[in-house]
Amino acid sequence: MRHFAFILHPLRFDDFAKKFPITQHLPPKLVEWAFKKVGPIKTGHVTGVRSRTGEELEGWLIGLPLTPDILLKSPYDWVLNKLMRSVQMAVELGADIVGLGAFTKIAGDRGVTLAERVAVPITTGNSYTTATAVEGTLNAARRMQMDLSCVQATVIGATGSIGRAASLLMAEHVRHLTLVARTPESLKSLKEELVQAFPGIVVDWMTDIKAAVGPADIVLAVSSATGPIVSPEDLKPGAVVTDVARPRNLSRRVMDRRQDVLVLDGGVIQVPGEQADMGFDFGFPPKMVEACMAETMILALEGRLECYTLGGTVEVERVREIRELGDKHGFTLAGFRRFERAIDDQEIERIRLAARSASA
Q1: What number of other Cβ atoms are within 10 A of residue 3's Cβ?
Q2: Kindly report the CA angle at 129 between 128 and 133, in degrees rounded to 5?
Q3: Does 360 have pLDDT greater than 80?
Q4: What are phi and psi of 4, to 5 degrees?
Q5: Taking a C-beta distance cutoff of 8 angstroms, is the pair 307, 98 a contact?
Q6: DSSP string spanning 21-90?
Q7: In the list 36, 105, 320, 324, which could disulfide-bond 100, CB 3.0-4.6 Å?
Q8: Among residues of the chain, what percentage have pLDDT more than 70?
Q9: H helix intervals, the chain
Q10: In the prediction, which pLDDT does 247 show?
Q11: Cα–Cα dist 6/59, whole Å
């Protein structure tokens, strides 16, 4: 039996009510202030996971009751202490490797200092998140009958850890790639890297999100923004938009108002094992988790007890490797989903036809 733990936190104020219903009746600022005083909480117990190899897995979910704003705006020494206490709890429960969820892997130096201070390996899960996000996006584009050699793709948050690796992988398939981020110098550097690695590709960069997504056939959103940054009117008919970010980069109004755009949740993974129980309501059907958590589980099953993905760079070689390890152990993309709801081929066809009508 292998063992892991995963640290998670509420992405929105409403998430507090999932564990503590009374908070829905209290002022948000009061709740946030109170929970800053609270340490890590054992939030869930993962059982029944069984690899194709026969190896079994047990895990624990460790909750930090801190919102994204608190994690990003608080002094990192304070956040680091919270994370170290979370890892200590994981070790006491029996975890051999610990994964960082959502903004716990963005705060500070993306897990590097934490890994130096604790006794077990740490991973952010960004390698498997990248692999599955790009794979799912390209599969969806093919379902929408796009010729990948002709499409224009945009990566929002392109210079981040996931964004850079995703841009390198997307460049293997598309003709025109637009990079979006806040820092021109980093964008210029990434453009040069892509042009050198993929002769013939057209690479643009910009800091204006609306201008970047407007002409895009494919949009991959991986920005660490704390709220929606893409609106319904920003997108062209027929666009495939994969939102990997949590909290989401896309406004829910995109799905509600644009029936001619295919919006996808990035990196939702089905876990192997008939009796697999994630021990927590992630908003998904049973046996489904985010890819970052799945990476931690895969590494535990494989016995790769190492700091697999840390810091600001995700290596493409590791993205490919963790994808292969996921296949080996029976982890799969959970079909196509948007805002936690499954979509089938008929719905995709309706979106494709609506896009054709809107473009006529």
Answers
A1: 17
A2: 115
A3: no
A4: -145, 170
A5: no
A6: GGGGGS-HHHHHHHHHT---EEEEEEEEEE-TTS-EEEEEEEE----HHHHHHS-HHHHHHHHHHHHHHH
A7: 105
A8: 93
A9: 16-19, 28-36, 68-73, 76-93, 112-117, 126-143, 161-170, 184-197, 209-213, 253-257, 291-302, 316-329, 345-359
A10: 75
A11: 8
Pair 138, 340: CB distance under 8 Å = no
> Which of 3-17, 42-56, 152-166 is the least confident region?
3-17
Cβ–Cβ < 8 Å for 287, 278: yes
Compute CA 313 distance to the chain's CA centroid, rounded to the nearest angstrom.
15
Q: Beta partners for 343?
A: 336
pLDDT digits (tens, 9 = 90+) for 327-337: 999 999 987 88
Residue 19: alpha-carbon gap to chain centroid: 22
- Is residue 325 within 8 A of residue 302, CB to CB? The reply is yes
Domain boundary assignment for the chain: 2-127+268-333, 132-267+336-359
Burial of 14 (0-12, 13-18, 19+ CB in 10 A): exposed
* pLDDT, tens digit (0-9, with 9 covering 90-100), for 153-210: 999 999 999 999 999 999 999 999 999 999 999 999 999 999 999 999 999 999 999 9
Supply 230's token pair. Answer: 């893409």
| Rounded-to-integer distance, Cα 196 and Cα 310, Å | 26
Query: Comparing C-alpha atoms, which of 124, 212, 125 is closest to residue 167?
Result: 212
- With a CB cutoff of 8 Å and minimum separation 6, the contacts of 81 are none
For residue 296, give both structure tokens.
Answer: 């931690």
Give the three-state DSSP class for 278: coil
- Taking alpha carbons only, the member of 287, 302, 281 closest to residue 335 is 287
Pairing of the two strands 56-63 and 98-100: unpaired
- Scan for tokens 């997108």, then name that residue: 235
Nearest-angstrom CA–CA distance, 94 and 149? 48
d(CA 264, CA 338) in angstroms, rounded, equals 5
In words, the CATH class of domain 132-267+336-359 is alpha beta
151, 121 Cβ separation under 8 angstroms: no
**Could you tell me if 46 and 38 are in contact, meaning their C-beta atoms sit under 8 angstroms apart?**
no
